[in-house]
Amino acid sequence: MPRRPNIPCKHPGCNRLIPAGSKYCEEHTMQHRSYARTTKEKGYDGRWRKARARYLKAHPLCVKCVAKGKYQKAAVVDHIVPHRGNKKLFWDESNWQALCKSCHDKKTMTEDRYQEFKY
Ligand SMILES: [Zn+2]
Ligand SMILES: [Zn+2]
Question: How far is 10 from 16, CA to CA, in rounded Å?
Answer without folding.
Answer: 9
